Amino acid sequence: MRTTCVRGAIAKVGAEVSLTACHSVDVLIVGGGINGAGIARDAAGRGLDVALVEQADLASATSSSSTKLIHGGLRYLEFMEFGLVRQALIERERLLGIAPHLIRPMQFILPHVPGLRPRWLIRLGLFIYDHVGGRRSLPSSHAVRLDALGEPVLRSHLRHGFSYSDCRVDDSRLVICNALDAMERGASILTHTRLVSAQSRDGLWHARCEDGDGRKHELRARALVNAAGPWVERVRALLPVERGTSHLRLVKGSHIVVPRLFEGTHAFMLQNADGRIVFTIPYEHDWTLVGTTDVRFEGNPAAVHITPEETGYLCDTVNRYFRRAIGPGDVRWSYAGVRPLLDDESPDASRVTRDYRLELTDGARHPPLLTIYGGKITTYRRLAEAALEMLRPHVGGARHGWTDRATLPGGDLPRADFEAFLQDVRRRWPFLGERLSLRLAHAYGTRIERILGTASAMDDLGEHYGAGLTAAELDYLRSREWARDPDDVLWRRTKLGLHLSEREQARVAAAMGADTEVALKTS
Question: Cys staple from 141: which of 20, 164, 406, 408, with CB 3.0 to 4.6 Å?
């Protein structure tokens, strides 16, 4: 078989793929999480030739296992991380502007517990949080009476608290939208393709890659970006470079999803006596998301799972605050991810910095290698911008950043007004109903038209698999958003696995040509 490289894709001709030299790209990115996708987008928009390889699905690891928040990190103020909090809060405003369909403001209630953080300290922290990041669009913090929030859901001894604002996000779709924008600006996005090795010859990286079918490819690049998240140090070991000066601390964070604990659109931030905090967040209409834990992790990041101890910790936290008690039997779904944090030698996993470090290795024996250590989803765009600023002397590209102004795919809502956009969706496609129209509008923004088109009834969208998932949407995800396996659709690009029965999930798997029967995903 003959393999040729073209901008935006790898073209394959024939029955087999042999290892063949491809034309050079400016930047080869290893890792399809939020940092890799963000760097690919920024680089492509600066006119660079870009290729990204991801060993599994986009956002298949850490970037789909977050607490789904775009926030400054209120508790990081306790650790004196004022610079990180300020940058994250600035980014919160920018991301709201470029992705108003994916990112939504949310009110958080922080109950005061006598004996834990004193009220004056919480007030001071919230005052700083309101002002350090140039807040423009979100409401300011204030004290609240917990018994005046409506139907009482918290225990009776909890009477006082505070309200502040942050944002929620569909983390997986944020990754997908960055990758989509990168591809549409010319980048090659190669999923299910892993880096095998890379050597330096003639001033270029010669990277050997292998796809999920065992086919080999070779890519040449002027610079290589290691954005492999928890696998950063494993990828670095594949390269003929010296050990880096920075190191990772792998910390596992686990979440549970239980039947809805309270009405309303607000969330709760719960304090624990060990200094950690746990969020309870309205999730997918019928559920409450509870998380996260902070546990030191050693092992394979691809085989990470919540433990019974973590489930018990999260349930116990909820039970200390809420009138309605929960236990492991109430858990509908759980997920765990490994955070690749920058190792600052903190003895407490919950105190390890969420800041990032970019390490550029430009030795005499090899082309530039940029390694990404740490970071958080809120600051991914600024991290990508900083990465391109470091690489520009080596690969060129436009001098100035642009991603803080250009909307992500689907985010070009008229006047950035999501509610007005939603009403227009419901006017144009009234057969969708309230819940489905809301889900599709949030997930796809203005690109909802590419799924619904001229449909005037649900039957026009093809087979209905349940919970609003139709053949039209499934076809779109497979043809435009790299979805290959049932999990790609049910648990990342949508969260419909929460709503579909085992039989319905199996029908989705059959429609995607999966060989194995899909089992209902629970803890």
Answer: 164
List of domains in the chain: 2-62+173-246+355-395 (3.50.50.60), 65-170+248-351 (3.30.9.10), 414-511 (1.10.8.870)
Amino acid at 212: G
Please check the confidence at residue 2 and state whether its pLDDT lies above 90.
no
Please list, in sequence order, all residues whose beta carbon lies within 8 angstroms of the beta carbon of residue 138, skipping any fewer than 6 positions away. 105, 165, 166, 167
Q: List the alpha helices (DSSP H) in 445-523.
A: 449-452, 471-480, 486-487, 502-511
Q: Which whole-number Å values give the CA distances from 2 to 13, 102, 215, 379, 413, in the listed order?
A: 5, 40, 12, 41, 43
Count of other CB atoms within 10 angstroms of residue 462: 15
pTM as predicted = 0.93
- Which of 180, 74, 176 has its CA nearest to residue 128? 74
Count CA atoms within 13 Å of residue 352 on its CB side.
26
The total of other beta-carbon atoms located within 10 Å of residue 72's CB is 28
- pLDDT at position 516 is 44
Residue 501: both structure tokens together: 């029965």
Structure-block tokens of residue 77: 């103020």
* C-alpha count within 13 angstroms, C-beta hemisphere, residue 254: 22
Please report, to the nearest 10 degrees, the dihedral formed by the alpha carbons of residues 418, 422, 428, 430 taken in order: 180
What b/e sequence results for 485-505 when a residue is b if at least 16 CB atoms lie within 10 Å of its CB, and e otherwise? bbbbbbbbbbbbbbbbeeebb
